[in-house]
């Protein structure tokens, strides 16, 4: 018999709404500032979920309004420029393809993994991008947990952003995200989601 007194999702309904069911991609923002303390708190929460061999390849470049923001805008798709210009903070989320240099410190049970990855740049690039993408999902939830809205965008020239900000660096841009408090008409209508039976099989 199923115990109907215990909720199947133990996270408080308010938190479920904030992180998942009511959360939306924001397209406008107020001018309320996002503090450096907010940005640190977001990372300090997002750093805990898992990555392969604890590699943690996600890197974050925060860009506030000014010269660097203007340079970023030249690499954004036209439809993303206005909202990117107006956001209090924009994050360029990147994968560090030299993440393996940290392995002796963050995966001390197998420090020799560093040398194996150093000898295989293609495998290292794949591992960096896959695990950074996992971390991006955690990071987006952490933004929501901080009471902020996120506007993730894939519409940008990644090679151009890398040349602009990551020259002579092992960082490679994956996603650009506007963050802040949502402004007027911030949300598009909620689009349909697939149902459980559309996506799940049992073997």
Mean pLDDT: 96
CATH homologous superfamily placement: NADH Oxidase
pLDDT under 50 segments (min length 5)? Answer: none
Number of helices: 9
Number of strands: 4
For the biggest β-sheet, the strand order reads: 1-2-4-3
CATH T-level topology: NADH Oxidase
Domain Nitroreductase: 24-181
GO molecular function: oxidoreductase activity
Pfam families: Nitroreductase (PF00881)
Protein name: 3-hydroxypropanoate dehydrogenase
Q: Keyphrases for this structure?
A:
Nitroreductase_HadB/RutE; 203 residues; NADH Oxidase; Nitroreductase-like; 4 strands; alpha+beta; four-stranded antiparallel beta sheet; 9 helices
Structure notes:
This protein has a single domain, classed as NADH Oxidase (3-Layer(aba) Sandwich). Helix 1 packs across helix 7 (121-145) and helix 2 (36-46) crosses helix 7 (121-145). By secondary structure, the protein is an alpha+beta fold. The chain has a four-stranded antiparallel beta sheet with strand order 1-2-4-3. Helix content is 41%, strand content 14%. The model has no long low-confidence stretch (mean pLDDT 96). It contains nine helices and four strands. It comes from Micromonospora carbonacea. InterPro entries: Nitroreductase, Nitroreductase-like, Nitroreductase_HadB/RutE.
């Amino acid at each position: 018999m199923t115990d109907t007194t215990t909720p199947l999702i133990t996270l408080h309904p308010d938190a479920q709404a904030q992180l998942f069911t009511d959360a939306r991609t924001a397209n406008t923002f107020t001018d309320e500032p996002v503090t450096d303390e907010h940005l640190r708190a977001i990372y300090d929460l997002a750093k805990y979920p898992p990555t392969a061999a604890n590699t943690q390849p996600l890197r974050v470049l925060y860009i506030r309004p000014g010269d660097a923001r203007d340079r970023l805008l030249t690499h954004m798709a036209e439809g993303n420029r206005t909202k990117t210009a107006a956001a209090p903070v924009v994050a360029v989320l990147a994968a560090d393809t030299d993440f393996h240099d940290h392995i002796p410190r963050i995966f001390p049970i197998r420090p020799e993994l560093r040398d194996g990855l150093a000898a295989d740049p293609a495998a290292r690039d794949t591992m960096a991008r896959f695990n950074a993408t996992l971390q991006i999902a955690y990071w987006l939830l952490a933004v929501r947990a901080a009471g902020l809205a996120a506007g993730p965008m894939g519409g940008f020239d990644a090679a151009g952003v890398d040349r602009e900000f990551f020259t002579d660096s092992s960082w490679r841009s994956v996603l650009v995200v506007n963050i802040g408090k949502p402004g007027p008409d911030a949300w598009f209508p909620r689009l349909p989601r697939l149902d459980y039976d559309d996506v799940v099989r049992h073997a």
